[in-house]
Amino acid sequence: MSSHVAGLMATFLSAALVLTAAVTLAVGYRVIIGPTTPDRVVALDVIATNVVAIALLYAMFTGQGFFLDVSFVLAIIGFISTVTVARYVTEGDIIE
């Protein structure tokens, strides 16, 4: 019974990893095409979020806690970069 649940969980995590990677590639198309700068910023934010999700899913899949730290740092960097770019787009300057 336990091995059946573990196998089902591994299948679910593998499917989630593939789906998240596919969505990240699809959003990469939006970064390249645009058409506006805010579209590209939102697409980059989605990519950052998906990379964090991939790191978390991989941590769950492999059972290695190191990837939790990696995902935490990536989330912080993604948040800071999104706030910085949003401030630049709205006000034209990052530091007053």
UniProtKB/TrEMBL annotation:
The chain crosses the membrane at residues 6-29, 41-61, 67-89. The keyword rRNA-binding does not apply. GO terms for cellular component: plasma membrane. It comes from the Archaea. It is found in: Cell membrane. Its main location: membrane. One of its GO terms (molecular function) is sodium:proton antiporter activity. Keywords: Cell membrane, Membrane, Transmembrane, Transmembrane helix, Transport. InterPro entries: MrpF/PhaF-like. The keyword tRNA processing does not apply. It is a multi-pass membrane protein. This is pH regulation protein F. It comes from Halorarum halophilum.
